[in-house]
Amino acid sequence: MKVSDILQIKGNTLYTVNPDTSLLEAVNTMAEHDIGSVVIMEYGELVGMLTFREIIETLAKNNGTVGTHSLRKIMDDAPLTCTPETDVNEVRRMMLERHTRYLPVLDNRTLMGVISFYDVAKAVVEEQSFENKMLKAYIRDWPEERTEERSDERTAQP
Question: Per UniProt, which keywords does this protein have (predicted)?
Answer without folding.
Answer: CBS domain
